[in-house]
Amino acid sequence: MKTSLLRIQAIVTKELLQLRRDRMTFAMVIMIPLVQLLLFAFAINTNVRNIPVGVVDHSQTSLSRVLQQTVSATGIITFTHNYHSTKAAQKAIDSNEVRAVLIIPKDVSQRLVRHPSVGFGLPPSSKQETSRPIAQWLVDGSDTVIASSIKSLRNMPLVELLDKPANRNTPTFEVTLLYNPEQRSVVNIVPGLVAVILTMTMIMFTSAAIVREHERGNMEMLITTPLAPIELMIGKIFPYIFIGAIQVAIILGLGYWLFNVPFNGGLSQLAIATLLFICASLVLGLVISTVTKNQLQSMQMTIFILLPSILLSGFMFPYEGMPLPAQYIAEALPATHFIRLIRGVVLRDVDVIEMNFDMIWLIAFTCLGLLIAAMRFKKTLD
Amino acid sequence: MIFTTRDAANNTNYHRELAINAKNLCRNFGSLAALSELDLTVEKQTIYGFLGPNGSGKTTAIRLLTGLLKPTSGQVNVLGCHLPKEANKLRLEIGYMTQKFSLYDDLTVKENLQFVSKIYGLTANEQKSRLSELLSTHQLTQQSQQLAGSMSGGQKQRLALAAALIHKPKLLFLDEPTSAVDPQNRREFWEQLFDLCDQGTTILVSTHYMDEAERCHKLAILENGIKRADGSPQALMNNMAAQVVEIAATDLRYIKDKLTTLPQIISAAQLGTHLRVLVSKVEANPVALLQRQFCIKPTDKLAIVRPSLEDVFVSCTGQGVAR
């Protein structure tokens, strides 16, 4: 047991020395979380604002101009172009000049006064007249996020147009937004980024760990020594646990100071969740390393794991919205479980024990992965 | 279980323990037979050599004897351990210096040695004294803080040997240890090997240099995975199946071309102003045979000379035959 610990310590020291001398890799340990956090936290925004749109104003009245201003005031769109005909507007959408066009008909005033949401009721209107919308949006529907943003304007209140009180309609449901009342995307993204960046760096570091020894010719020496496979595996992952912890500190620290991401959970809770995920990712990298034959293959396998970890884990799109087969795939990824845990701890102050399924899953994944990696690693050159 | 040379060859009178005893050792890679039916006995506290060209099976044989490869068939017993079953037990007893430098280029000499010593379970005190001993024996004290990758071939070789010896192995395997080393370093290296042997270490070394092979107590000549001959260098030279005739003449290239067409001639190779001709031992008078050839002038000088190990190698393997 004592010599076993000594051997693990030998591998850990060697890995740390090599890492310290590999300045590029060492710089990437710091730069990857730093740059990606700044980039994604600023860039990713699911609340679409200021979509460039055009207008075809057949009415040319003061009411049509007020209508444009009211729509513009929502902040969702910005009128950037005026077109004289519907045909010209459609052409502008085709050429990607604007993403949508608002077509205001000649009789917009009559349509407005008869519109049920305004509810004047006078002069008496026929059913056909009341069912007529006051204007029409032509939208480039290929991007579903932009399309749904403009669709959200469909039922925008028009009472402001006519100086009516805004709270005239009582909503059917009252909605209370917990944890992120201002609906800032960054609050959801920063904890998710921890998962994505750790998936990338942790798997990448260890996926090259064993093949690198083979490629550099060190393995022939290592396997003639009494070093046991499990000692090599533990020694290989141990230093990167600290690297992972540094990266988590950078992401969450910057998230807190720069983007005001609330940090509700305790440090110990966060440490438990992160440690489990780092171990699971490192072990996944080790398994890859025992399967692949060179560092290029390891890199390809890392990306193969990374993409679903970004797209299916709940980082980009809600897990619940995915079809069942995709949910099964997502369940197999450590990132999915960690995103649940870290969002729970950081945003909702949940005790990790309450989310024991995800915790147990990560522990089981780590143990099984370590076993598979140690079993796959042969101490012969056969 | 202790094997002795008496087990291996009953007609010997002395009784010395065997470090390695292999019987019918075969190893195939797919359809390629890298090693065929190798019988090998290596006595303790001797230097045993594998001599052969590249691809002759030297490295495969060493890997089989260290437990790095599993034999396709045959039995191997190394230091009383049956391979491949007891490979783990054997690892504590052997040192292995690979053909390619296999320590870490991005660690210093001292860090590399510290790493290996921890892997072999040396305590901090043992480590300290062993490291300073090895650094001074192998003339690496001044380079102890230098990165291994920035050292010369000779220094790397000394470091690799020091690392292989860190746990004082009983049996040392050296796979072409001097291939990237200058003659001066090679000489010193061999002196160290004899010191080790004197202290009780058994050494198995592979090489393709004749002068190195000649230094071994015993050696085996390998070709295409088959052992062509074995024994002490002197015995091999004495028992060679050819006689060596040296010809001093003017038109040596012409003579060589003509002589190599004769069935009795095993090989002919020019050495400066002489042509060294290996003539099959079935020929009772090789000088007379050569003098009868029309390409030899009466003024040319012919003489039977003492065979060298290279002659043995050529006669056994057909390597270097300029036919």
From TrEMBL, chain A:
<keyword id="KW-1003">Cell membrane</keyword>
<dbReference type="InterPro" id="IPR047817">
    <property type="entry name" value="ABC2_TM_bact-type"/>
</dbReference>
<protein>
    <recommendedName>
        <fullName>Transport permease protein</fullName>
    </recommendedName>
</protein>
<feature type="transmembrane region" description="Helical">
    <location>
        <begin position="270"/>
        <end position="289"/>
    </location>
</feature>
<dbReference type="GO" id="GO:0140359">
    <property type="term" value="F:ABC-type transporter activity"/>
</dbReference>
<comment type="similarity">
    <text>Belongs to the ABC-2 integral membrane protein family.</text>
</comment>
<keyword id="KW-0472">Membrane</keyword>
<feature type="domain" description="ABC transmembrane type-2">
    <location>
        <begin position="143"/>
        <end position="380"/>
    </location>
</feature>
<feature type="transmembrane region" description="Helical">
    <location>
        <begin position="189"/>
        <end position="211"/>
    </location>
</feature>
<feature type="transmembrane region" description="Helical">
    <location>
        <begin position="359"/>
        <end position="377"/>
    </location>
</feature>
<dbReference type="InterPro" id="IPR051449">
    <property type="entry name" value="ABC-2_transporter_component"/>
</dbReference>
<dbReference type="InterPro" id="IPR013525">
    <property type="entry name" value="ABC2_TM"/>
</dbReference>
<dbReference type="GO" id="GO:0043190">
    <property type="term" value="C:ATP-binding cassette (ABC) transporter complex"/>
</dbReference>
<keyword id="KW-0813">Transport</keyword>
<feature type="transmembrane region" description="Helical">
    <location>
        <begin position="24"/>
        <end position="44"/>
    </location>
</feature>
<keyword id="KW-1133">Transmembrane helix</keyword>
<dbReference type="Pfam" id="PF12698">
    <property type="entry name" value="ABC2_membrane_3"/>
</dbReference>
<feature type="transmembrane region" description="Helical">
    <location>
        <begin position="237"/>
        <end position="258"/>
    </location>
</feature>
<keyword id="KW-0812">Transmembrane</keyword>
<feature type="transmembrane region" description="Helical">
    <location>
        <begin position="301"/>
        <end position="319"/>
    </location>
</feature>
<dbReference type="InterPro" id="IPR000412">
    <property type="entry name" value="ABC_2_transport"/>
</dbReference>
From TrEMBL, chain B:
<dbReference type="InterPro" id="IPR027417">
    <property type="entry name" value="P-loop_NTPase"/>
</dbReference>
<dbReference type="Pfam" id="PF00005">
    <property type="entry name" value="ABC_tran"/>
</dbReference>
<dbReference type="GO" id="GO:0016887">
    <property type="term" value="F:ATP hydrolysis activity"/>
</dbReference>
<keyword id="KW-0067">ATP-binding</keyword>
<dbReference type="InterPro" id="IPR003439">
    <property type="entry name" value="ABC_transporter-like_ATP-bd"/>
</dbReference>
<dbReference type="GO" id="GO:0005524">
    <property type="term" value="F:ATP binding"/>
</dbReference>
<feature type="domain" description="ABC transporter">
    <location>
        <begin position="20"/>
        <end position="249"/>
    </location>
</feature>
<keyword id="KW-0547">Nucleotide-binding</keyword>
<dbReference type="InterPro" id="IPR017871">
    <property type="entry name" value="ABC_transporter-like_CS"/>
</dbReference>
<protein>
    <submittedName>
        <fullName>Sulfate-transporting ATPase</fullName>
        <ecNumber>3.6.3.25</ecNumber>
    </submittedName>
</protein>
<keyword id="KW-0378">Hydrolase</keyword>
<dbReference type="InterPro" id="IPR003593">
    <property type="entry name" value="AAA+_ATPase"/>
</dbReference>
